[in-house]
Amino acid sequence: MLGFLLMLLRVLIDCCRSRQELALENLVLRHQLEVLLRRKPKPRLRKRDRILWVWMRWLWPQGWARQLKIVRPETVIGWHRRGWRLYWTWRSRSRLGRPRLSPEVRDLIARMSRDNPLWGTERIRGELLKLAIVASNRSIRRYRWRGPKRERSQTWRTFLRNQIRGIWAADLFVVQTIGFQTLYVFFFIRHERRELIHFNVTANPTAAWIWRQVIEATAWSRQPRHLIRDRDKVYGDDFGSKLAGAGIREVRTPYRAPLANAVAERVVRTLRQECLDQVIVLNERHLVALLTEFMRYYNRDRPHRALEFETPVPSQPTSHGVVVTRAILGGLHHAYGRAA
Questions:
Q1: Tally of structural domains, the chain
Q2: Which position has the higher pLDDT, 118 or 59?
């Protein structure tokens, strides 16, 4: 009953409206009914339907949104803005563009650049202006003589791979114990395979202790050609001369430039995130035990993205045998392999 009364009230209100407004309302309602009758496979708005509603928004600004049922008014506003952008894109298009250079001018540019290899683009442009020939720098760069094609050399990746052989990095970082004692961890890492070569822990690092670690790391005729380190005073003033006497070239990083020793800094982050930040270190002996176990896992079981998911100490994968699991650091990590 209430719906019937509302319909009668709506009819009385429509009697007071203008014929133009009634005609527009009849148009939009008929259009929406036509859209809803499309069944292939479901009602879809076509491009001409969107144009009609954009036009209706301009022609009937007071009542178009009230009669809109099949989409939201915000959708029609979005259509209008998109059409406005397309219109101005069309208006601002380049109708003529820059005229093409004639074949004679192209040949002249190529001949000038071939006869004068030291001339740049601006110099050639100046010579063309003396001949009353106008050409842009972009056109000159396109048509200038390129010279004979050089033979292909080795890639940067190959060059860098050949250089990193024999490069080690050294670094020192601190660890806090449960008793607020500061311990220092010193380590060496090999660039080529990201292999941790050696580490040790102390509460009082000195230049003599640092040199002792170098001797232990380079035992059994295993030593680098280059050693990258920072400018920490703990190395001592004669560290470089000692390395030179052992046949190792010292490479010191610039001041406040940790990225110059990026491989060592990255392994420090790995040691903290995957080991030290997950446990509470009790004392120096506990820290040595933790790092020894993690170092073995890091070198032999942990895949590295920089090595195409191989381990620093390579091993031959096998597809035979039962998969077994080995807990690392009490289950903080797990290593997987196949039983023999």
A1: 3
A2: 118
Residue at token pair 């590295």: 304
Predicted confidence (pLDDT) at residue 115 exceeds the cutoff of 60 = yes
Q: What count of other Cβ atoms lies within 10 Å of the Cβ of residue 251?
A: 16
For the ranges 63-67, 199-203, 260-264, the one whose mean pLDDT is highest:
199-203
Please give the residue range of the domain that contains residue 119.
Answer: 103-143
User: Could you tell me if 134 and 216 lie in one domain?
Assistant: no
Dump pLDDT digits (tens) for 47-64: 777 777 676 666 666 666
Contacts for 189 with CB less than 8 Å, ≥ 6 apart: 168, 169, 170, 195, 196, 197, 263, 264, 267
User: In this structure, is residue 248 part of a structural domain?
Assistant: yes
- What is the number of residues in the chain? 340
Within this chain, do residues 128 and 234 fall inside the same structural domain, yes or no? no
* Strand 226-229 relative to strand 249-252, pairing: parallel
- Burial environment of residue 247 by CB neighbours within 10 A (0 to 12, 13 to 18, 19 or more): exposed
Angstrom distance (rounded) from CA 37 to CA 322: 64
